[in-house]
Amino acid sequence: MVWDYDLETRHTGIDQDHQEVVAFLAAFLKVLDSRHDDRVPGALAMLYDRIAKHFAYEERLMVDRALPATAAHTGAHRSFLDDIRTHAERVATEGSTEAFRQWAHGQLVSWFRAHIKAHDLALAQALNEPGPTRG
């Protein structure tokens, strides 16, 4: 996966964070494709941590602005992190199976792209509009 401007939200902080997440995702996929299976769990853990950090950033922005879609957006974050954690547990016990590789190249990548379109574009638009902040 590479960053492309189709992923741009027009919110500087979110876009910078997304670019970093994409870089971590690309690095993880490179490790996965190298067939160095001993490195996959660590690379996946690093990706998980970076995504969790990004989600925490977005959630702080939502709470600070008291945005109405916060619960749904946060729920999507939790679901995605749970999915990654489940796959990480399987990798720890089963190794990098073909099913895991398919998930990583397919669902992992497509979920992140779809999440930006479904949630983050609206978040960025709301953040870019003047509005009250939680004090």
List the defining traits of the structure above.
mainly alpha, Four Helix Bundle (Hemerythrin (Met), subunit A), 0% strand
Summary?
This protein is an all-alpha fold. Helix content is 77%, strand content 0%. The chain has one domain (9-128): Four Helix Bundle (Hemerythrin (Met), subunit A).
Descriptive account of the structure:
The structure is a single chain. The chain contains four helices and no strands. It has 135 residues and is mainly alpha-helical. The protein has a single domain, classed as Up-down Bundle (Four Helix Bundle (Hemerythrin (Met), subunit A)), CATH 1.20.120.50. The longest helix has 31 residues.
CATH evolutionary superfamily: Hemerythrin-like
Structural class: mainly alpha
**Rg, alpha carbons:** 16 Å
Report the mean per-residue pLDDT as an integer. Answer: 93
Order of helices and strands: HHHH
Counting DSSP E segments of at least 2 residues, the number of strands comes to 0
The CATH class designation is: Mainly Alpha
How many domain modules? 1
Strand content: under 5%
CATH architecture grouping:
Up-down Bundle
Low-confidence stretches: none
Assign an overall shape: elongated
Major sheet: size, sense and barrel closure?
Answer: none
Distance between the termini: 38 Å
CATH topology: Four Helix Bundle (Hemerythrin (Met), subunit A)
Number of helical elements? 4
The portion of residues assigned to helices is: over 70%
